[in-house]
Amino acid sequence: MAPNKRHHPRTGGLGMRNDPAILSDSDLLTWRHWSAPLGWFAALGMLLVAMPHLGSLFAALDPEAREPIYRRDAFVDLLANHLLLVAGASSIAILSGVSAAIMVTRPWGRDFLPLVSQLASIGQTFPPVAVLALAVPWLGFGGLPTVVALVLYGLLPVVRNTLVGIGEVDPATREAARGMGMSPRQVLWQLELPLAAPVILAGIRTSVTVGIATAAIGSTIGAKTLGDPIIAGIINGNTAYILQGAILIGVLALSIDSVFARLLPSRR
Amino acid sequence: MTDQVRIALLNVSKRFGEDTAVDGLSLAIAPGELCVLVGTSGCGKSTTLRMINRLIEHSDGQIHIDGQPIREINEQALRRRIGYAIQSTGLFPHWTVARNIGLVPRLLKWPAERIQKRTRELMQLLGLSETEFAGKYPHQLSGGQAQRVGVARALAADPDILLMDEPFGALDPITRESLQDELLRLQARLHKTIVFVTHDMEEAMKLADRIVVMDGGKVVQQGSPQDLLTAPENAFVESLLGGRDRGLKQAGLIPVRDVMHPTGARRQTTAAAVSADDDLRGALSLMLLHRLSSLTVVDERDRTVGTLGVDDIMHRKNLLPAASAKPANQSSNQSSNQAYNQPASSSDDGDAVEDKAKVEDGAEQTSPSQDRGPRHEE
């Protein structure tokens, strides 16, 4: 998912844009630019409103179900809680991931580079379900262990892409920046981060999108998420419930993903 | 003038672990001097350059700028007052040309208006049309254009000192030559103290007031291009000078104007003409090409101003001492002693300071075309 090639899509343009690799403000502020995400969110909203009234449709899909629509919680509440968990976990993963990657690319932190990238890899290879199982005895049931599992799972793409993005900055450019008299902080904020931004953003996109899908397993340990209908469906053999949860999670993930797609410069 | 040394290196060494990159180097560079460090790769010339702006910290010895040890100056403050241009330009890819040029003034917190004015001035100085280039990004530039922007950026805060690390090394020969001419034209006007690193002896010959030949982290020989050609210290310097082509290179340092007979002395027109601003090497080449023993000399408007014969070249009055290489096995340890006593080249004298003041008063605002040096650009 992460683009590993440098691309400079904005070649033309007479204006003094700050950064060709990032969309300019004027582009980001037009309705047209955001039409796709708006469409997805409209679809999501309509689904939330319409779902409880689609009993006959789901009854047709799964005639054996006693109750075709999941009614233990309102879908809106499940969605809100689902989003909250992902937002919390992603914020932590992004903040700690980006800052860890920045630290280990500084001269004084270089020794920790292998350690940090290894930790992040382990975080991702460790299945979230296992993390949940291990975390419950410490943190109890509910949202907290879910957030822990999501943070661990979401760290790698952020760390890796930040490392790649900063690593891709031409050493000669960095040396020139120092030679011009920029402080290390200025080099980071004015050179490295702006150039790495598209790659970092791509990592965040992966992390968040995967997080939305993965958060559903929180339902197994009592966190309220859109996974609830799925778990209930599995336990009760109710395919309609499973479908309702899965559809909502899918559309939510696509909606959020389309926002990132618009933040990242498109390749033309 | 009390202060004739702008950059002083005293017995400077740099060690990377076991390796000694620069070994007890001493060098004094006068204000307004264009000093070229030449050597093969790994001879320590780049390391020496980067020790001057503290991109590399020297291990031993002392480096002074205007009499002040550079260790006493804040790293960033030091670098902001020294221009720095490198081979790969190091332009910020996400910034426009204008913004790149204004980098150091912005670091120095100049007011926006002054930065803009200065950027405009520099683009004009380096022959970059503002309307065409100000808003472009580095990847939209050709190599030569990017290097011009790199030089403009180095000059932006009007530093006294300019460090250039093989700035023209990656350019095609034609672009390289035109940028070399440009640099000489700029230098004739700005009188910066320039330390220029190259592995190309030809380039060094063309640009330098003084050439410092380095090998194995030490100075092998230093002196004016003529000094080197006349008396290369050892076989290494001789090989850098191009061995058999030395005679031609020497001829390349003498303008036709100095040797020709002015019109009237021996008037005769020949089939081929050479410009008075050209050098003897070019004249010889023309003679060989056209199988002539004498040429008509013309000025920039193609008016005949004199004649030049083979005999004039052979028996020229401002004859250099006949070239004689010293024995190749002669040890070079005397070179480090002589390093510090070397007089600054003749072109710089007390005027340098005055000239600089003039420059700051707006000489730079005049259009570049008014001020073309004697070099012919056709």
Report on this model:
- The complex is a heterodimer of chains A (268) and B (378).
- Chain A is mainly α and 268 residues long.
- Chain A has a domain at 79-263: MetI-like fold (Orthogonal Bundle), CATH 1.10.3720.10.
- Chain A contains eleven helices and no strands.
- Chain A has helices at 25-28, 35-50, 55-61, 75-104, 113-125, 128-139, 143-167, 171-179, 184-214, 227-236, 239-263.
- In chain A, helix 5 (113-125) crosses helix 7 and helix 7 packs across helix 9.
- Chain A is flat and about 75 Å long.
- Mean pLDDT of chain A is 84; it is low at 1-21.
- Chain B has two domains: 7-81 and 160-248 and 325-371, Rossmann fold (3-Layer(aba) Sandwich), CATH 3.40.50; 255-314, CBS-domain (Roll).
- Helices cover 36% and strands 21% of the residues of chain B.
- Chain B has helices at 45-52, 75-80, 97-101, 103-107, 112-125, 130-133, 143-155, 173-190, 201-207, 225-230, 235-240, 246-251, 256-259, 280-290, 310-314, 334-341, 351-360; strands at residues 7-16, 19-29, 34-38, 60-65, 68-69, 82-86, 161-165, 193-198, 210-215, 218-223, 261-262, 273-275, 294-298, 304-309.
- In chain B, helix 5 (112-125) crosses helix 7.
- The two termini of chain B are 40 Å apart.
- The model of chain B is unreliable at 321-378 (pLDDT under 50).
- At the A-B interface, helix 8 and helix 9 of A face helix 2 and helix 4 of B.
